[in-house]
């Protein structure tokens, strides 16, 4: 069986992993959100001292750009570590389920194909569908190509503009506006995905708990819950607030207002810096919230998958014991005399269509 590891805290593999875990823990918590807000208040308070100068605004742009780069890297690496665990856990679940069906079919003599499973489509309104479409576009090769085209256009117009300050600000303003909206959309779509997964996990857990109840076993349902400390409550509240459609709409309206205001003053240097500064603040804030939300939601998802694996192993133990009691050669005569737990196992639809297919699937996992 594959070793899936600790679902609550992913164990580091090397020094680089430890650094990633430490930085993600620092960056992705409500304390960082509070520190970020305090830093922004301090920056605004220093504005009069420096006459709201362009250099004063550039300090913010530089610091938030560095923070965003680090946040995106941490979010990507944390997501990759989570996906590795999920993949290993799913493979292990499939292995146990394939062996479980194989053993139950040996006991019962059944060779009928399992019924087809239909995945119901998700009902969404036009607003949610449009955000999903936008997220899919920006996260695809088309989004990458569009980014490349915009960068090439910016480089090409550099010489005609004399590589001036306005030319430098164009790329910062463009990426700030697009990045802010992307971060808001990403938080919204991730929350929708999490809700869909929660419904599926709850449905599967209910079915499995019914099986365990008929078997007279307690089963496993240890879905991870964070301790309800003040910081955790603030973290969850902030994450959920930023995942609402109201937050996305407010972000869109703010960006639109900034663009209209900058257009009214013909996109002078101060206007570009203002648009850049506001969008960079919002994007940095959303990225911190994204890391925080990922840390919480990914942990919960891993715990649910781990619970599924444990329940499969419990059922497999029962099937193995029954196989050791009843000879496979006598399986044709066992249907009317099997213990009740074997009959319950027999009624559970699993993954493959026949004992031979189960063996092939099991060997394929190896």
TrEMBL record:
Query: Which key words are in the record?
Result: Membrane, Transmembrane, Transmembrane helix
- Does Transmembrane helix appear among the keywords? yes
Record keyword Transmembrane present: yes
The UniProt entry, under InterPro entries, shows: Iron_permease_Fet4
Q: Which GO terms describe its biological process?
A: transmembrane transport
Give the Pfam families listed for this entry. Answer: Iron_permease
Q: Where are the transmembrane segments?
A: 20-46, 58-78, 133-155, 167-190, 247-267, 273-293
- Name-wise, this protein is Uncharacterized protein
In its UniProt entry, the species of origin is given as Chlorella ohadii
């Amino acid at each position: 069986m594959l070793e899936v590891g600790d679902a609550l805290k992913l164990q580091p593999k090397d020094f680089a992993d430890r650094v990633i875990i430490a930085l993600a823990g620092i960056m992705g918590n409500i304390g960082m959100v509070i520190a970020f807000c305090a830093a922004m208040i301090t920056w605004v308070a220093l504005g009069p001292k420096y006459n709201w100068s362009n250099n004063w605004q550039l300090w913010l742009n530089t610091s938030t750009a560095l923070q965003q780069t680090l946040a995106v890297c941490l979010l990507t690496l944390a997501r990759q570590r989570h996906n590795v665990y999920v993949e290993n856990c799913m493979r292990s679940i499939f292995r146990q389920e394939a062996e479980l069906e194989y053993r139950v079919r040996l006991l019962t003599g059944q060779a009928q194909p399992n019924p087809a499973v239909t995945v119901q489509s998700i009902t969404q309104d036009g607003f949610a569908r449009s955000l999903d479409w936008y997220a899919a576009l920006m996260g695809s090769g088309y989004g990458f190509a569009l980014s490349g085209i915009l960068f090439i256009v910016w480089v090409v117009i550099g010489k005609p503009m004399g590589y001036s300050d306005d030319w430098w600000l164009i790329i910062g303003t463009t990426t700030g506006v697009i990045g802010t909206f992307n971060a808001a959309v990403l938080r919204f779509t991730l929350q929708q995905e999490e809700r869909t997964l929660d419904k599926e996990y709850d449905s599967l857990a209910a079915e499995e708990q019914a099986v365990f109840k008929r078997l007279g076993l307690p089963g496993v349902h240890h879905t991870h819950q964070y301790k309800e400390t003040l910081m955790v409550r603030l973290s969850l509240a902030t994450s959920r607030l930023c995942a609402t459609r109201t937050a996305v709409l407010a972000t869109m309206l703010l960006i639109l207002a900034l663009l209209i205001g900058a257009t009214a003053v013909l996109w002078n240097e101060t206007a570009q810096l203002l648009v850049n500064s506001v969008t960079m603040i919002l994007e940095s804030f959303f990225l911190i919230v994204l890391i925080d939300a990922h840390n919480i939601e990914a942990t919960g998802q891993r715990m649910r998958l781990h619970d599924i694996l444990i329940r499969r192993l419990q059922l497999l133990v029962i099937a193995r014991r029954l196989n050791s009691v009843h000879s496979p050669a006598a399986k044709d005569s066992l249907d009317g005399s099997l213990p009740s737990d074997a009959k319950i196992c027999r009624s559970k639809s699993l993954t493959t269509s026949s004992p031979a297919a189960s063996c092939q699937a099991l060997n394929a996992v190896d």
